[in-house]
């Protein structure tokens, strides 16, 4: 079956409206989906969830940091009005605002003049800001030719615009998702520097691994499939779609429905 449990809209660092994203998912034939904007839930206000109840799963991607790793926790199937989850998302967004301000200052000092206002113009008012918005602003100013170039030269670790993130820890994100009645899944585990984190997070309530992910090669998929079985974790999959140009693989992941049974059971669907 074709599913996509990891997508983004312009309510975080994607470029598509929720309606535009849904059109892409429809064209791909995606049967089950979630919008997982970074630290934001606003996209769901633009969807008719009652009409899509059997297709759409509520979701969010919570940015966390731990042991020099950026660890992203995907939460699924929670109520959108959760009084537990929203304060944590607001705290992460306050950190994002501060981080972007420091990035702009460092880039300007290095000769790449950029203002916070120019970065904010790349996002909806009040939406979470991140490096993709900085990259787009740098490209619009003519400092770089591509978003990839911005990341490769200016925003990478050690680059003049790099500022380490100080988000909440993944342990807290997992706890908050579960206390909200949701399912906590580790996003794109292949991007971790330290795979030992997976077992540690399982000990504090992690429930799933995003095994099926565009940049995971066959060896990684096999490894994470075995890890999920060994630790009793469910498997999920998603495209991590942000933009048609940047994500040339598009939306949707073709996953054997049997590999998703555990995930669907946790969701009660």
Give structural attributes.
13% strand; 8 strands; globular; 5-stranded mixed sheet; 3-stranded mixed sheet; 9 helices; TIM Barrel; 269 residues; DNA polymerase, domain 1; alpha/beta; 2 domains
CATH third-level topology of the largest domain: TIM Barrel
Provide the residue-averaged pLDDT. Answer: 94
* Discrete helix count: 9
**Count the strands?**
8
What is this structure's SSE topology?
Layout: E1 2-4, H1 18-28, E2 32-33, E3 59-66, E4 69-76, H2 85-109, H3 116-120, H4 131-141, H5 147-155, H6 170-179, E5 183-186, H7 196-202, E6 208-212, H8 218-231, E7 234-237, E8 253-254, H9 261-267
Parallel strand pairs: 1-2, 5-6, 6-7
Antiparallel strand pairs: 1-8, 3-4, 4-5
Helix pairs in contact: 4-5
């Amino acid at each position: 079956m074709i599913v996509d449990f990891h997508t983004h809209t312009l309510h975080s660092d994607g470029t598509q409206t929720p309606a535009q994203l849904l059109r892409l998912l429809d064209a791909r034939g995606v049967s089950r989906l979630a919008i997982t904007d970074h630290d934001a839930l606003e996209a769901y206000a633009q969807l008719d969830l009652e009409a899509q109840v059997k297709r759409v799963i509520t979701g969010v991607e919570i940015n966390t940091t731990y042991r020099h790793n950026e660890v992203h926790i995907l939460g699924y199937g929670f109520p959108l009005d959760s009084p537990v989850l929203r304060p944590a998302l607001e705290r992460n967004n306050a950190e994002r605002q501060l981080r972007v301000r420091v990035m702009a200052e460092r880039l300007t000092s290095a000769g790449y003049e950029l203002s916070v206002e120019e970065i904010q113009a790349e996002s909806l008012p009040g939406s979470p800001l991140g490096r993709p918005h900085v990259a787009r602003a740098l490209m619009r100013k003519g400092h770089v030719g591509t978003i990839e170039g911005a990341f490769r030269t200016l925003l990478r670790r050690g680059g003049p615009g790099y500022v380490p993130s100080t988000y909440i820890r993944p342990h807290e994100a997992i706890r908050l998702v579960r206390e909200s009645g949701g399912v906590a899944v580790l996003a794109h585990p292949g991007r971790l520097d330290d795979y030992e984190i997976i077992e540690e997070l399982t000990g504090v309530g992690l429930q799933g691994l995003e095994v099926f992910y565009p940049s995971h090669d066959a060896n990684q998929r096999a490894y994470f499939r075995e890890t999920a079985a060994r630790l009793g974790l469910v498997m999920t999959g998603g495209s991590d779609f942000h933009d048609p140009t940047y994500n040339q693989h598009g939306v949707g992941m073709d996953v054997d429905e049997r590999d998703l049974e555990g995930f669907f059971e946790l969701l009660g669907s």
